Amino acid sequence: MSFIKCSSTLEGHLDRVWHVAWEPNHGKYFTSSSADRTIRLWKFDPNSNSCNPICVLQDAHNRTVRSTAWAPGSLKMASASFDGTVCVWTRDETSDSLEVVATIEGHENEVKSVSWNCSGNLLATCGRDKTVWLSPKDILIDLL
């Protein structure tokens, strides 16, 4: 059996890290989400085989950020939080920053996961309230 050796350890979160998600369009950005209520954007440098922190997103959620997902073919990312909200973010290619463009509310409590469809125009969320939501296509299309 083969073993894979860890090439680097990324630090910075102050509590449990729950999830990581690669941005599918370029393969060099990814997010990590944490119980410290933050999302960190990282950039992979293939030349040095290392990752560098780009920014810390800390004002959108007031409880654990459980998961993130990037929309295929766009600069959009969604985050699911135990505060019962989902935020949709857009990445500015010039500054590499992320900005909230929409907040989806309505789950009764913790949102556990978020996922885009393969076209990047539908967003599914699931929560502790035992529901799965598909966000309205007409709202998301305006954002994309």
Notes on the structure:
By secondary structure, this protein is mostly beta strands. The protein has one helix spanning 137-143; strands at residues 17-22, 29-34, 39-45, 50-57, 65-70, 76-81, 85-91, 98-105, 111-116, 123-127, 132-134. The strands form three sheets. A four-stranded antiparallel β-sheet has the order 1-2-3-4, with no helix packed on it. A four-stranded antiparallel β-sheet has the order 5-6-7-8, with no helix packed on it. A three-stranded antiparallel β-sheet has the order 9-10-11, with no helix packed on it. 33% of the residues are buried.
Please provide a brief summary of the model:
This protein is mainly beta.
Top keywords for this entry?
144 residues, mainly beta, globular
SSE blueprint:
Blueprint: E1 17-22, E2 29-34, E3 39-45, E4 50-57, E5 65-70, E6 76-81, E7 85-91, E8 98-105, E9 111-116, E10 123-127, E11 132-134, H1 137-143
Antiparallel strand pairs: 1-2, 2-3, 3-4, 5-6, 6-7, 7-8, 9-10, 10-11
Order of helices and strands: EEEEEEEEEEEH
The averaged pLDDT comes out at 89
End-to-end separation in angstroms reads 44 Å
The portion of residues forming beta strands comes to over 45%
Major beta sheet summary:
4 strands, antiparallel
**What is Rg?**
15 Å
Choose one word for the global shape: globular
**Share of helical residues:** under 10%
Which ranges are low-confidence, i.e. pLDDT below 50, for 5 or more consecutive residues? none
Structural class: mainly beta
> Can you count the beta strands?
11
Number of helices: 1
- Strand arrangement across the biggest beta sheet: 1-2-3-4
